[in-house]
């Protein structure tokens, strides 16, 4: 018995898939686009008046020199400890920027926090989590130039990409790459 080779055009394929009651999900091939994409971010630390503006991901990989600069910018402001920031957090900020068309710098209110700084802040405020994602380099408290904290909060919630804290009196939101939750 010989096998027949059957070839369908795109239109015929879609017709037969629909007739069979099959749900068809077509995803474009983005493998080469992902590898060649460049992710750019602009960050400003208010307390140190330092900036990072540039690519942190190029040609399919994270840029080590850029990550080192970002790690330093995110450092603990009370003792200058530096920790590696989880790249998923940078990707989250980049995704926020892409989703909203946000063109300004993210103002970093708080990035990395050492365990000792976190304990000190917990003594001052019950709103500081004992196991904060800041300690792991997985969280950022950010403000937005030209975007209200209310709008930023709603967009972050809709993204469902991690934790979202809302601090309207202090005019910032908390974003982290932990489980999806909000407060």
Your description of this structure?
This protein has 183 residues and is an alpha+beta fold. Helices cover 33% and strands 22% of the residues. The protein has an 8-stranded mixed β-sheet. The radius of gyration is 22 Å and the shape is globular. The model is unreliable at 1-34 (pLDDT under 50).
How would you sum up this structure in a few lines?
The chain has 183 residues and is α+β, with helices and mostly antiparallel strands. Helices cover 33% and strands 22% of the residues. It contains 6 helices and 8 strands; from the N terminus they run ααβββααβαβαβββ.
Question: What oligomeric state is this?
Answer: single chain
Number of strands: 8
User: What summary fits the major beta sheet?
Assistant: 8 strands, mixed
What is the number of domains?
1
Supply the number of helical segments. 6
Structural class, by secondary structure, is alpha+beta
Average pLDDT, all residues: 85
What is the N-to-C succession of helices and strands? HHEEEHHEHEHEEE
Return the CATH topology. Muramoyl-pentapeptide Carboxypeptidase, domain 2
Instruction: Tell me the Rg in angstroms.
Output: 22 Å
Second-tier CATH architecture: 2-Layer Sandwich
The fraction of residues in strands falls at 15-25%
Annotation keywords:
globular, 6 helices, 8-stranded mixed sheet, single chain, 183 residues, Muramoyl-pentapeptide Carboxypeptidase, domain 2, alpha+beta
Secondary structure elements and pairings:
Elements: H1 10-19, H2 31-36, E1 39-45, E2 50-58, E3 61-62, H3 64-73, H4 87-100, E4 106-110, H5 115-124, E5 139-144, H6 149-159, E6 163-167, E7 172-176, E8 181-182
């Amino acid at each position: 018995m010989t096998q027949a080779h059957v070839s369908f055009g795109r239109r015929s394929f879609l017709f037969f898939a629909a007739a069979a009651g099959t749900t068809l999900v077509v995803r474009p091939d983005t493998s080469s686009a992902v590898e060649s994409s460049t992710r750019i971010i602009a960050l400003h630390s208010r307390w140190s008046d330092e900036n990072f503006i540039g690519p942190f991901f190029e040609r399919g990989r994270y840029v080590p020199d850029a990550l080192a600069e970002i790690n330093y910018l995110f450092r603990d402001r009370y003792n200058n400890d530096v920790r590696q920031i989880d790249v998923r957090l940078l990707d989250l900020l980049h995704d926020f920027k892409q989703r909203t068309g946000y063109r300004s710098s993210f103002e970093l209110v708080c990035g990395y926090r050492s365990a000792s700084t976190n304990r000190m802040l917990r003594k001052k405020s019950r709103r500081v989590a004992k196991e904060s994602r800041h300690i792991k380099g997985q969280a950022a408290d950010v403000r937005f130039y030209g975007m209200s904290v209310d709008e930023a909060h709603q967009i972050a919630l809709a993204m469902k990409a991690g934790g979202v804290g809302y601090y309207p009196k202090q005019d910032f939101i908390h974003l982290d790459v932990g489980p999806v939750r909000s407060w």
